[in-house]
Amino acid sequence: MREGMGRRGIAAIAAAGLIAPRAGRAQPAEGYPSRPVRIVLPVAPGGSTDTIGRVLADELVKKGRGTFFVENRPGAGGNLAYQLVAGSAPDGQTLLVAVDSLTVNPSLFRDAGYDPVANFAPVALMARIPHVLVTHRNGPAKTFAEFMEIAKREPNRLQVAISGFGSGGHLSGAVIQHETGARWSVIPYRGGSTPMNDLMAGNVDAAFVTLGAVIGLIRGGQVVPLAITTPQRFPLLPDVPTVAEVSIPGYDVPNWYGLLAPAGTPAPVVARLNEWANAALAEPAVRQTLLESGFEIVGGPPERLGALVRDSVPRWRNLIRDAGLRAE
Q: What are the backbone angles phi and psi of residue 199, rounded to the nearest 5°?
């Protein structure tokens, strides 16, 4: 997460690692990968994380880098996927596409089962994407002000879908509730397209999801965007106000997507994967797909993602503690 998440600021998680990092074998990257590589996603099929994971895998295969395939491992707010990769052999054969929940969950869950810094080797910060608060076109509110008025007048009446405890949508909404005193009921899912399916069916009143998960429904007029989490208005939704505009000055809660490997993965393998990931993100067709889905493409060296993970860990403890958030 970046700075500027609200007037009181957000501080962070100190995660206790339960999986000891393995020492990687000193080996060159020549011949890598020698067998199929799985890219583990902490969500169900559908949604933004699934999109960027599959786009990356497809591009790596297309460019002849080897056989890469996606494995969806939803559950426990992403912890099942994070534990799986943290405990995998550090040989580059198991990779992870992680989101903000990687750095949030050790404070949100009593036993996340991994350390976001010690148990992973950062490979590349691939992209960021904003979250959007949306309602059905026939929903109870047509503006953010109307939504907040209901949430303050009738606490917990509104049911808001999120893609899972610890997700960017969960924390985006938690910051708003913490800062304003508004209250709504949080309905967690296991990622994928289910939150939006339930919103369209009228089973929930609103959803706090990534722009990529909902941009098609917004363009089709099926859902109404009330506010976006970026500090300035987003180019794909120029008419949608930011939370900072209409409620909390300085509010900025983007979601990020990073490619990681188990700690101890040999540096030459990490370097090769970083090179391939950056090359994939530079491909015009890949860029067009991601930009049209609401992603902000980032890229860069492994150290960029490593710094983000380290800095994100301490940003969540105060919010989680002060807001009394707990997944269990």
A: -65, -45
